[in-house]
UniProtKB/TrEMBL annotation:
One of its GO terms (molecular function) is FAD binding. Gene3D superfamilies: 3.30.9.80, FAD/NAD(P)-binding domain. Signal peptide: none annotated. InterPro entries: FAD/NAD-bd_sf, Oleate_hydratase. It comes from Marinomonas posidonica (strain CECT 7376 / NCIMB 14433 / IVIA-Po-181). This is 67 kDa myosin-cross-reactive antigen family protein. Pfam families: MCRA. Transmembrane segments: none annotated. One of its GO terms (biological process) is fatty acid metabolic process. The lineage of its organism: Bacteria, Pseudomonadati, Pseudomonadota, Gammaproteobacteria, Oceanospirillales.
């Protein structure tokens, strides 16, 4: 069949009504049938990367993207790749003077570098890698992608940590000892078994026991993902499912992969360079405050964009007309909105109220949308209590000093070699701020001098006085933050020398974990809210089927869903990777939760399976061969809680079954 014949197909009828662009793998049982041509909802493979035909009439349509973070950039990418929209028809409106949103990275060695936050990634961020395998690499020759670059770095330089938890002014703790008793392990298992619908507006501290919240496991989990005890239990559940395959890597962070440079130079710059080369148009210093909408009983159509354009420190109103066939993609809320900055001798000064971001905030667009219809959610659930959504980070630019020498001692490789350093954050479990520090691969910036290290520090608890500095972290200058860090590293006596060799830039972010605030069904809007014909919503405050938030993956997923749904592209955004259903991950996760000791019933599984094809699904038993039988009998006794005769009879039956497996040809 010739291509010109294929191109005459009526694509909207191919993507017929009822086609699920955002499938839910937890919703029902997938099976083969005569009329089911689609793979399983969470199926990830090259088959899911098929090229679609151009959407009819796409050449005459425009797209207005509000927000130049990774979600907005992703919307532009998918409009070009999968909708075949001419790039010159795509306009990105950004409040700041540079694209990237929360994924920033800037500075110089003289004034100091700054990164407000970092991104922890793993190999099954499928929408992230779907996009970046098509974006040209930053440093490799033509023909290589960002994904190729990322894989080459991580495949040849494994990430892990040897000092994930510390306490008592520099002591390294055994992070593999999760410290969960059987009852506390069951708290996690019961949470995973609960329906999502049963967890509306429940806080973490309302569910877990006090002992659980003091365990090493919770220190690992909450510091890795930035959860406070007052945050959403539902989000905790979603994280457990998303990272079930990674639990045995929490203690040494071997579950993670990191880039060569900071997130801006690694991801944002190559992606935005690609979009500019294609013809996408960027307009900066433009804050969108509202959308004009034509609303009927069953439709919501954007007809205009109301914005404020900043020039010479003055804002002027701008109205952009939007045709019915044009598209609008809007960011709802920002994690890093109204960041307050400070340096060595200054303290950050917030400009927002505790319960309201104010009229000059980027949150105004979502606030105004929510007034138009309940389908746009409840932004006040997320911005309404900055004491619970706020934390602070600091970026240290360090010349050689006792501080950099201490980092070398704690790193798996000398940071000056460019290889994996601390492998992720080091968390001080006795820190009243719950302070963490990390040294990623160096140089962290392309222009960074060879003798300079860039460290990143963050504190999660903002209402407690420090251990050494008797102030809350937001009350401290940069100098006092360095003082507190050096106390936890056991470097108090060398503070003067360290301060003379270190620059610091501080970022206090009132909404950095606003997306974790307790919420209920309907509080977050969907990527394409009900009735919207030309509006898609993107970012961390948008509801997806099963994915987590506070990740690049989440922002990209919302953009991709919006593009596919609004243009009815016959292509699915796969549900999250199905590793949560893999019996291998369930078993090794159970072992990890039990501090790498066999969980109840695991030895029985070994007796059943270790002579079979499926023996490989079980972690090796951590004991000599000669004691396995006695340990097995002890476990049987605990399981059966019966007399020794029954125990021996059952044990003999298992032994006979094993021998039967091993003796068959």
């Amino acid at each position: 069949m010739r291509y010109d014949k294929i191109a005459t197909f009526d694509i909207p009828t191919i993507a017929a009504e009822g086609f699920e662009h955002e499938p839910d793998a937890t919703r029902d049982y997938w099976q083969h049938s005569a009329k089911n041509t689609l793979p399983p909802y969470d199926f990830i493979s090259p088959y899911a990367r098929h090229k679609t035909l151009p959407t009819p009439g796409i050449e005459q349509r425009k797209a207005w993207i509000i927000g130049g973070g990774v979600g907005g950039l992703a919307a532009a990418f998918y409009l070009i790749r999968d909708a075949h929209m001419p790039a010159e028809n795509i306009y990105i409106l950004e409040e700041m003077t540079l694209e990237g949103g929360s994924m920033d990275g800037s500075g110089n060695p003289e004034e100091g570098y700054i990164i407000r936050g970092g991104r922890e990634m793993n190999w099954n961020y499928d929408t992230l890698w779907d996009m970046f395998q098509d974006i040209p690499a930053a440093e490799l020759p033509e023909g290589y992608s960002v994904l190729d670059e990322y894989r080459l770095i991580n495949d040849n330089d494994a990430n892990y940590s040897k000092a994930r938890l510390m306490a008592k002014n520099g002591d390294i703790l055994d992070a593999k000892e999760f410290g969960l008793n059987k009852s506390q392990q069951w708290e996690l298992i019961r949470l995973m078994l609960k329906r999502k619908e049963a967890l509306d507006d429940i806080r973490i501290e309302d569910y877990f026991s006090k002992g659980f919240l003091k365990s090493n496991f919770w220190f690992l989990f909450r510091s890795m993902f930035a959860f406070k005890d007052s945050h959403s239990l539902l989000e905790t559940k979603l994280y457990l499912h998303r990272f079930l395959d990674s639990i045995d890597g929490f203690a040494d962070l071997s579950a993670l992969v990191f880039p060569k440079y900071n997130q801006y130079d690694t991801f944002i710059k190559p992606l935005s360079d690609y979009l500019r080369q294609q013809g996408v148009q960027f307009q900066f210093a433009t804050r969108v405050v509202d959308l004009d909408m034509q609303i009927t009983e069953d439709q919501k159509i954007v007809t205009g964009i109301q914005a404020m354009v900043r020039e010479n420190d003055q804002e002027q109103p701008l109205t952009i007309a939007v045709n019915h066939q044009d598209l609008v993609f809007a960011l709802t809320g920002s994690m890093t909105e109204q960041t307050a900055y400070a340096s060595m001798e200054t303290v950050p000064q917030l400009t927002c109220e505790q319960d309201d971001p104010g009229e000059q905030s980027g949150w105004m667009l979502w606030k105004n949308l929510a007034k138009k219809s309940p389908v746009f959610g409840k932004p006040e659930k997320f911005y309404g209590d900055t004491e619970q959504s706020m934390w602070e980070s600091a970026t240290l630019t360090c010349k050689p000093s006792p501080l950099t020498q201490k980092i070398i001692e704690l790193a798996v490789n000398d940071p000056y070699t460019g290889r994996t350093a601390t492998g992720g954050i080091i968390t001080f479990t006795d820190s009243k701020w719950l302070l963490s520090v990390t040294c990623n691969r160096q140089p962290h910036f392309p222009n960074q001098p060879n003798d300079t290290l860039v460290l990143w520090v963050y504190g999660l608890l903002m209402d407690q006085q420090g251990n050494a500095v008797k102030k809350t972290m937001p009350e401290c200058t940069g100098k006092e933050i360095i003082t507190e860090l050096c106390y936890h590293l056991g470097l108090q006596d060398q503070l003067k020398d360290i301060l003379s060799k270190t620059k610091i830039r501080v970022a206090l972010m009132p909404y950095i974990t606003a997306q974790f605030m307790p919420r209920a069904t309907g509080d977050r809007p969907h990527p394409v809210p009900e009735g919207c014909t030309n509006l898609g919503l993107i970012g961390q405050f948008v509801e997806t089927r099963n994915d987590i938030i506070f990740t690049m993956e989440a922002s990209i997923r919302t953009a991709r869903i919006g593009v596919y749904k609004l243009l009815n592209i016959p292509k699915q955004v796969p549900d999250i990777s199905p590793t949560q259903y893999d019996i291998r991950n369930l078993i090794k996760g159970a072992r990890a939760l039990n501090s790498n000791k066999p969980f109840l019933g695991e030895r029985l599984l070994h007796r059943l399976l270790d002579k079979t094809y499926y023996a490989h699904i079980l972690p090796p038993l951590p004991e000599p061969e000669q004691v396995k039988q006695s340990k097995f009998e002890e476990e049987l006794h605990e399981i059966l809680d019966k007399g020794s005769t029954l125990m021996h009879q059952f044990g003999n039956w298992i032994q006979a079954l094993r021998e039967n497996f091993s003796n068959r040809e």
